[in-house]
Structure prediction request, 270 residues.
Amino acid sequence: MWNNLSRILMLIAMMLAGAAAYLYWGYGAQLHQQVRSCAARSEELSLENQRLTREVVYLGNRMNSEIAALSSQKQAELAKVRSTRDDMIRSLRSEVARGQIRITQLADRLSVNIVNRILFPSGRARISRNGKKVLMRVGAVLAKAHDKTIRVEGFTDNVPPGPALKNRYPTNWELSTARATNVVRFLQDATGVNPSQMEAVGMGQYHPLASNSTAAGRSRNRSIEIVLAPRYSALAARLARSAATAGKVPSGVDSGAAKTRFHTPVDRAH
Prediction:
């Protein structure tokens, strides 16, 4: 009986040993391969993490550098605008003192507002002799602002053109547009301002600078405003160059020079 039991136990032991060997050489080899694969993948991920960490540090340093450069450029831009404003005030000191011309700066935008009685005879769009003298001084300063858009806006009060003007200027739209266009043409022809920087816009009576309920307000609304603003085509060109340096040029960026635009009343944009 003990011999039979020993044989049975021996047989079971051999079966278990065989099963263990089968599992080891079968599934065990696969498990070892998976462990080696996981170890290799872990090493790859560790190296990738190190690379990404270096990339983050590099990009962070570059971003800080570019922010500092942009801040420096912004300060330089504001300094140039202040210089242009100061030149304009010196050139037009007497008109500014009499309240006939207002010069204001808002960040990187400069505005020169000239009442129409300086530039035009009443109800006319042709520039007067005295108006040409004033615009010669204005143009001498504008001609040095090479990186600015120069937007000339014509404004009127809400009084319609009189009977003598109706045939030529049916509404204040036409009158304000004609005045703005004539100023732009004079600045180009007589003072050498780059026409590709300029825009002529007729605002009519629909963007009043003061109340039309008083004579003083209507007088202020009859004006020409010259606005100097950043030239967006130049900004687009700088962005394109910056993106190219980074190895990627944005699609749709037009770095070409701006064209002169003479806006009709329908085109008004303000």
Summary: The chain is about 55% helix and 15% strand. Helices lie at 2-91, 93-97, 116-119, 129-142, 172-191, 215-221, 232-245.
